[in-house]
Amino acid sequence: MLKTKRLFDDKPYETLFESVVTHVGEGFIILEQTLFYPLSGNQNFDIGFINGHPVTEVHVESDSDGKLNLNAPIKHFIDTSTFSIGQHVRGDIDETRRIKTMRLHTASHLIEFFVKKLPYFLSVEGSFVDDVKDRTDYSLSKNIDQNLLRLIENQVNDFIAQAHSVSFSYQYGVRFWNCNGIEMPCCGTHVSNTKEIGEIRLSRKNKGKGLNRIEVTLV
């Protein structure tokens, strides 16, 4: 069974890697190991180059129950005309895109932590993070107004400035993000310390029916 070793789990700051092609499909290749993060866990995919050819998308298949399989093969969408099984290749991911996504993803977890402390928090209904912004939809029994949004923003920025370290652990095959006693399941890439995030800015959109979308950008 084909599988791809996820180098980015332990080496999120690295951008160059070497690997071997294990499969050539229609418009994509699968590698033995990769630093390219695939679209999954509400985080966008990396882009970059393999042997100088642009990688336009990166995807991974979920299990039949919809859960992410950390051993699943990762598909790198690319012009396959120059690739063959067994070929040794060199990959190079877009560092700027990766780092910005990491900063925003870590910020997203901190915002979620403070929103969940609100007395009218009900649930998280969805989220997505890329290198431009993070957006998360919260179900609340009371909408967040601008004053409360600024309060949450200040709480998160204060927490960020305290320079807390970020680490990961595994429980029953599930990867958990940890930061100063906060723990959340997550398979994405993150900074190693909150100070790397820098200052963030929040905005809100009322999606109706008690849904509040909070968007975060880097200042």
From TrEMBL:
Domain Threonyl/alanyl tRNA synthetase SAD: 174-215
MF terms (GO), sorted A to Z: alanine-tRNA ligase activity; ATP binding; metal ion binding
PANTHER family reported in the protein's UniProt record: ALANYL-TRNA EDITING PROTEIN, THREONYL AND ALANYL TRNA SYNTHETASE SECOND ADDITIONAL DOMAIN-CONTAINING PROTEIN
Pfam families per record: tRNA-synt_2c, tRNA_SAD
Top enzyme category: ligase
UniProt keyword terms in alphabetical order: Ligase, Metal-binding, Zinc
CC cofactor: Zn(2+)
Top-rank taxon, per record: Bacteria
Protein name as annotated: Alanine--tRNA ligase
Signal peptide: none
EC numbers for this chain: 6.1.1.7
GO-annotated biological processes: alanyl-tRNA aminoacylation
